[in-house]
UniProtKB/TrEMBL annotation:
Residue stretches spanning the membrane: 7-26, 32-50, 62-81, 87-109, 155-174, 194-213, 220-237, 243-263, 275-299, 338-356
One Pfam assignment: AbrB
Highest taxon of source: Bacteria
Protein's recorded name: AbrB family transcriptional regulator
Organism, scientific name: Paenibacillus gyeongsangnamensis
Keyword Cytoplasm: no
Record-linked InterPro entries: AbrB_dup, AbrB_fam
Lineage: Bacteria, Bacillati, Bacillota, Bacilli, Bacillales
Length: 369
């Protein structure tokens, strides 16, 4: 018999219904980015109330990432790429500042939790969830469960809090929601009429780049591959049409549902303490990112909202979705997020191995929860 479990159609359908209900409810009460946050919260609650009833195939998330990658690729025009090269010193500065800040948070968490500095540091690194977990698995003396839980909690806190900050009086993106809705409807109308004949070309290229990117182990391949492919196609002079809002809403739902099913607090020991520390460190991280965003807006001609989305230590897919929703500078957001992702992927692992090897106290064999 095969060890692979068949996809349970009924469970997938139930998950979809719960996700849609969550999205509709959040839209009804005017929560920002409702089709991302609504499904995420609804499936998180449902999955922790009733175990083993909800299923969401990873293929759905990968499809959504291809859509988000295409949207990001559209923003990477020749002019935008040229502007990104001018931003490289600031990208490096912000990446180093953010990592240093995270190291400080990890030190505080390790003192209060007793989980060990290595585990706390891995839980605080603002990298892609997959890359950090792989790195944690390769590092001796790490509690993988605690790292995964902390990383997922951070990701969810950022997905929830960043839109609320962006749409709040702090940054005040939308002064007139009705006007924004009318503008969105106008974009939708224009979008459906202008999809062909170019969209199929971009769709085939995006899917092909996602598959190739996955084969060559590109980080976040299903998003980064289409983004690169779309950008290259546009540099040849081919115009990529903007997607209608309903398609990006569907992508948000697919990603939000996937993230919502990742977190299972019931499986953790010391649930209250671990959850409290994870939430507290996430809030400190968001506050730090906001402070750096304000600094970036002073140093460079970018809005505070664009700065926050560029520096927020969440997934590039979620930050890209929010940037698209508020008409932030998507090329700047993608550039900063991409730079930090590659910086963490290539520079941080050897640096961490060196630091953790020489850090005083690592000779102790105990103290890692």
């Amino acid at each position: 018999m095969s060890n692979h479990k068949p996809i349970r159609i009924g469970a997938v359908a139930l998950t979809l219904v719960i996700a849609i209900v969550g999205g509709l409810l959040f839209k009804l009460i005017h929560i920002p980015v409702p089709w991302l946050l609504g499904p995420m919260i609804a499936t998180l609650i449902g999955n922790n109330l009733v175990e083993d009833r909800f299923v969401w195939p990873s293929q759905f998330r990968n499809t959504a990432l291809i859509i988000v990658g295409y949207t990001i690729g559209l923003s990477l025009s020749a002019a935008a790429l040229k502007e990104m090269t001018h931003q490289l010193p600031y990208m490096l500065l912000m990446a180093v500042l953010l990592l240093a800040y995270c190291a400080g948070i990890a030190y505080v968490v390790s003192k209060f939790s007793g989980m060990g500095y290595k585990t706390a540091l891995m839980g605080s690194i603002p990298g892609g969830l997959t890359q950090v977990i792989i790195l944690a698995e390769e590092t001796e003396g790490i509690n993988i469960t605690a790292v995964t839980f902390t990383q997922v909690t951070r990701l969810m806190m950022i997905i929830i809090c960043v839109p609320l900050i962006v749409f709040s009086p702090i940054l005040g993106q939308l002064k007139d929601p009705a006007a924004a809705g009318a503008a969105g409807a106008a974009v939708d109308t224009a979008g459906w009429s202008g999809l062909f004949p170019n969209l199929p070309i971009f769709a085939i290229a995006s899917i092909a780049c996602a598959v190739v990117g996955n084969r060559i182990k590109l980080p976040t391949a299903y998003m980064l591959g289409p983004a690169i492919g779309t950008a290259l196609l546009q540099l040849t002079g081919l115009h990529g049409p903007a997607l209608p809002g309903v398609i990006t809403d569907i992508a948000q739902l697919m990603i939000g549902t996937y993230v919502g099913l990742m977190l299972r607090p019931g499986q953790l020991p010391n649930k209250v303490r671990t959850l409290s520390l994870a939430i507290g460190s996430s809030l400190l991280l968001i506050a730090g990112a906001l402070g750096m965003a304000l600094l970036l807006s002073v140093l460079q001609p970018v809005s505070e909202a664009t700065g926050l989305l560029s520096l927020a230590p969440g997934g590039m897919d979620q930050m890209g979705i929010i940037a698209h929703e508020i008409h932030a500078d998507l090329s700047i957001v993608a550039g900063y997020q991409l730079f930090r992702m590659f910086f963490i992927l290539f520079v941080v692992p050897p640096l961490l191995r060196t630091v953790l090897r020489i850090r005083p106290g690592n000779k102790k064999r105990h103290g890692v929860a």
